[in-house]
User: Which sequence fits this backbone?
């Protein structure tokens, strides 16, 4: 029966090629628009580190007070003095403070030009905490942090440029005229969204190719390459800047279970209360501890353009479906005499349902295939619509392919329900009489 | 035209009627909002900066190493750039319009004011700044070479002389007497307004104070500098190609980033408004396809109705209805359905716009766009039904006598 109905559907579709083409195109366009924009939305709203996102927490301390913050949300970054205190307390399993530094790498070969590289100053815990994959060597140690050691971790692409991809652990790298010993080479690691540095990157960035210890970077007064926000201008000089309430560092901790989270919350509150007693804060403790996904949603990393376009294209799909309902209705009811004959010859309502839903399914498959091609075109052309750093994240992977086909078949079968029901209601006697 | 018989006929085609009306309503809601977004973005993309944007080249430069002062390096570079063939003028700065990154600070009218009166972007430069940007003074004078000084990275910029935009002058001194007045960029450090320029925008495209710009006769002692060049007419491409080599010839210890090291101002503008242009393209395409699909849907259903009612049409024709009556019947029928759809659609469009306003901080839909949408869809409906209606009008009265 299945193949017979499929054959019937195919014949019927060929009978009105224009109407069929219209329905297939409506479904194809609707599905393609939705899937293309969905691919962007999926890329921007995904979990950058699924295996650990629930145990990694971003820490915020309210060192500005209600007068300078909006809607009670503490500043998105921390001041150096809070960072120092939190690092010293060491109340989490792992912890890392980070800030982007602006540096240039000077190649040993004098014939080569210096290269500007993205870099972060951070701590030894950063690498195991974020599961950063090492290709050679390892992270520097906590001891290196303590000793303010001149060590560095570099990325594969920088290692390719400087050492032709060869072993480089133990070799030196020249950063703005200062030598750092390489302890490890990591893969080109840049989880998207770049959750650990959203305030400076907006969430979508190439990531860094050099990492150095925060302690050393601060000694060398490596300039902050990210945002710096102050409520009061600091007094002149680096030391005064470090003592100021300017915020420019991010702080992440790893808390393996609920108890650890609970106790860290308590610690943060206690810290703020201490600062209040010491006279630094004149407001109630207002810290935040957010895991990766909560932090990304609070920072609104999904661009509004992505959400608006997804919504508009879903609306578009709905219109395409309404359109298909109308066209199917017209098509099915035009065949009322045929249905009358089939019913009179003994076909049950069930058979009519099966036949017409199959026909709709055929349209769904054709629409899905067209939608797939159009989605492919859409994903390729997404660079015209979204900025490059976001567009490159949208890909047509097997899941999207499958989803496109499923959505179009489900959509067309859904659209076919009402017309099919109407077709099944056809009274055979009335049809036969009027003929 | 008799409306009552049309309505009673429609009552016998509830499903089709509702489907067309719903489709028109949804299309209206989406098309209105999408067109509104398109227009909003297109307006943004074409927003003037106040600069004369042709023949401008921007160089993002970073010195390598940590010398005691970057100022001599910058000075030598600017000299080299000014003597390049094809270059009319050049200066060293921290930011420029559409750069998407810069420095802003509060301006105070009193030396010890607690809250800032207004926020302003700061552009550092020298006496060549106005000429290079192509900005005209509307009052006062330019900086003189002797007024140009430098400041350290950790200091706050607050020179004795500043040039401000008309927007700032008008907001600070509504009386129009800003020239010669003293304002404060840092507590206790007076700056006199020596000149006013007509319009110049901030480096950011999403700023709340887009026209508030202060020009300062300063160079910051910083490893990161921007060189802005005005080329002689027709020389932009030549300068764009040779400027990097010129700088590397002066001093190799620098980095000009690959992607955005050297850019013409057209590139700067394109980059700044990339997302807006993309959104405008996407929404236009969606609008176009959506209108086409809706039109196709109307054609499809109307054709079906015409086919279904051939016999009735034949009877009407036999009873004396003219072709134009039949044509008018279908046109009116479509108009009534579209009207119902449009009424629902207006409500939907406003609701959708309101929802986007609260969730995405977008502007509210204006009445004009609703009207454009309504007229477009009514016209679209009429155009789509025309061909089936014409076919209906050609049904011969003989059909009435046939049995099918």
Assistant:
């Amino acid at each position: 029966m299945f193949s017979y109905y499929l054959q019937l559907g195919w014949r019927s579709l060929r009978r009105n090629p224009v109407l069929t083409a219209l329905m297939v195109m409506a479904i194809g366009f609707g599905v393609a628009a939705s899937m293309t924009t969905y691919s962007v939305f999926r890329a921007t709203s995904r979990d950058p580190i699924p295996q650990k996102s629930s145990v990694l927490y971003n820490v915020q301390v309210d060192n500005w007070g209600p007068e300078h913050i909006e809607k009670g949300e503490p500043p998105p970054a921390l001041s150096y003095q809070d960072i120092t205190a939190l690092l010293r307390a060491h109340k989490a399993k792992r912890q890392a403070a980070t800030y982007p530094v602006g540096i240039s790498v000077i190649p040993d070969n004098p014939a080569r030009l210096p290269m500007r590289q993205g870099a972060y100053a951070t701590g030894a815990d950063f690498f195991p905490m974020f599961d950063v994959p090492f290709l050679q060597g390892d992270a520097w140690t906590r001891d290196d942090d303590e000793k303010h050691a001149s060590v560095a971790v570099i990325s594969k692409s920088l290692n390719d440029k400087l050492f032709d991809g060869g072993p480089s652990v133990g070799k030196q790298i020249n950063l703005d005229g200062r030598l750092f010993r390489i302890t490890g080479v990591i893969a080109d690691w840049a989880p998207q969204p770049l959750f650990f540095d959203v305030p400076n990157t907006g969430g979508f960035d190439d990531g860094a190719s050099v990492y150095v210890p925060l302690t050393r970077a601060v000694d060398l007064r490596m300039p902050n390459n990210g945002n710096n926000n102050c409520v009061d201008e600091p007094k002149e000089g680096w030391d005064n800047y470090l003592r100021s309430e300017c915020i420019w560092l991010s702080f992440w901790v790893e808390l393996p279970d609920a108890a650890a989270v609970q106790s860290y919350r308590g610690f943060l509150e206690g810290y703020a209360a201490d600062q209040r007693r010491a006279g630094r804060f004149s407001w109630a403790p207002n810290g935040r501890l957010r895991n990766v996904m909560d932090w990304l949603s609070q920072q609104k990393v999904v661009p509004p353009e992505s959400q608006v376009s997804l919504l508009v294209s879903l609306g578009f799909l709905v219109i395409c479906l309404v359109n298909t309902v109308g066209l199917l209705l017209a098509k099915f009811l035009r065949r009322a005499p045929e249905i009358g004959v089939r019913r009179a010859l003994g076909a049950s309502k069930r058979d009519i349902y099966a036949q017409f839903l199959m026909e709709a399914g055929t349209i769904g498959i054709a629409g899905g295939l067209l939608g797939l091609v159009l989605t492919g075109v859409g994903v390729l052309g997404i660079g015209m619509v979204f900025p490059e750093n976001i567009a490159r994240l949208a890909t047509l992977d097997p899941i999207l392919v499958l989803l496109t086909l499923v959505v179009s078949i489900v959509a067309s079968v859904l659209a076919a329900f009402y017309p099919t029901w109407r077709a099944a209601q056809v009274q055979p006697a009335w049809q036969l009489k009027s003929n | 035209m008799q409306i009552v018989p049309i309505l009673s006929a429609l009552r016998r085609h509830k499903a089709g009627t509702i489907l067309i009306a719903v489709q028109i309503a949804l299309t209206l809601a989406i098309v209105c909002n999408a067109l509104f977004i398109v227009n909003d973005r297109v307006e943004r993309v074409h927003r003037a900066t106040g600069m004369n944007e042709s023949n401008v080249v921007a160089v993002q430069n970073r010195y390598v190493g940590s010398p005691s002062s970057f100022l001599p390096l910058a000075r030598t570079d600017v000299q080299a750039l000014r003597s390049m063939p094809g270059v009319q003028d050049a200066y060293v700065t921290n930011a420029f319009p559409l750069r998407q990154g810069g420095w802003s600070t509060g301006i105070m009218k009193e030396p010890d004011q607690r809250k800032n009166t207004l926020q302003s972007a700061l552009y550092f430069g020298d006496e060549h700044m106005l000429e290079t940007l192509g900005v005209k003074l509307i009052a006062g004078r330019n900086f003189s070479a002797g007024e140009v000084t430098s400041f350290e990275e950790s200091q706050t910029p607050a020179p004795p002389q500043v040039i401000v935009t008309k927007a700032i002058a008008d907001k600070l001194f509504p009386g129009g007497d800003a020239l010669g007045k003293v304002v404060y960029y840092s507590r206790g450090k007076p700056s006199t307004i020596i000149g006013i320029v007509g319009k110049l925008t901030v480096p950011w495209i999403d700023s709340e104070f887009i026209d508030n710009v202060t020009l300062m006769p300063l160079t910051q002692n910083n490893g990161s500098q921007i060189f802005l060049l005005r080329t002689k007419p027709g020389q932009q491409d030549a300068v764009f190609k040779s400027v990097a080599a010129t700088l590397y010839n002066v001093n190799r210890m620098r980095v000009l980033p690959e992607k955005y090291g050297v850019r013409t101002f057209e590139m700067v503008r394109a980059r700044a408004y990339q997302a807006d242009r993309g959104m405008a393209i996407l929404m236009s395409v969606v609008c176009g396809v959506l209108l086409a699909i809706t039109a196709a849907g109307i054609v499809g259903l109307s054709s079906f109705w015409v086919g279904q009612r051939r016999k009735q049409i034949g009877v009407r024709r036999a009873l004396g209805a003219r072709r134009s009556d039949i044509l008018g019947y279908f046109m009116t029928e479509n108009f009534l359905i579209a009207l119902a759809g449009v009424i629902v659609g207006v409500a939907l469009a406003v609701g959708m716009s309101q929802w986007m306003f609260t969730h995405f901080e977008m502007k509210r839909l204006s009445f004009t766009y609703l009207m454009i949408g309504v007229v477009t869809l009514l016209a679209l409906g009429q155009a789509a039904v025309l061909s089936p209606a014409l076919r209906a009008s050609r049904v011969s009265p003989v059909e009435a006598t046939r049995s099918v």
